[in-house]
Design a protein that fits this description.
By secondary structure, this protein is of the alpha/beta class. About 35% of the residues lie in helices and about 20% in strands. Helix 1 packs across helix 8 and helix 8 crosses helix 10. About 45% of the residues are buried.
Length: about 300
Amino acid sequence: MQTLKSVLADYPHTRALKEHELTSTEVALEFVEYPTVSDAFDAMVREQEFDVCEIAVGAFLQARSFDKPLTLLPVVLAGGLHHRRLCYDSQKGILRPEDLRGKRVAIRAYSQTTGLWVRGILAEEYGIQPADLQWVTLEGSHAAEYVDPPNVERAPHGTKLVDLVLEGSVDAAVIGRAGRPGLVPVIPDVEDAERRWMERHGTTGINHMVCVRDDVAEDAAVVNALYRLLAAGIEGAVSDGPVSGPPSGVRFGVDRVRAALGLATQLAYEQAMIPAIPSVDSLFPEALLDTESER
């Protein structure tokens, strides 16, 4: 049995794995805990410190663009729709998407995956390109080699996204699921907008997936056993009720992730996050692709 040093956040669909209720005769998962799972991304992208690690799609695509020895598993741990993530302070007046050109928008990092989806929405639905905005970031990319575009500036250390909006330093901010006090979505009728996007693309967005070091990916028995464990965790959680809130982006399987991942690679290229668009299948272990094709 091979022991795999692993980092996964706490979700309903990882609980059984992390509490060792789901086990395998081929692999054992030894978990390393981080207060916030994104804190592990630097170590995985830059040093490949773990055998298995949850990873943001943007971080993974940039890692691969710099030839880091990482391979993606077709397992989505977090995702969803993102229209509501672009927020502003309604006390300062009404701000609509068409008003954004020339405005300042704060985001944790230009390469953050939520930002990738938000920029894609603005371009597709409102004709607003990333270069039309001034982006204010709190940090750089998990890939140390990546250089932000010229219309990106860094906020002072210790700054918070919400504070930047409320104090008027920026006009809007891309903010995650946790807490947006006093802020409202820039995109009007946001639930309808998200529903239309999902119907148009036939998928929901993806944020976090699972990656492994290449040496793990090259061992067919190990990577297939790991994939079966992750899939069983999702299947078990789904049978107990909805995962990650409706609409859920949590899923597994090459065919179930191909559309969203293909769109993410295209957007990453268009937004100058990666220099070329990789084929989706090239991101996955060959052994796992063979197994999936036999199902």
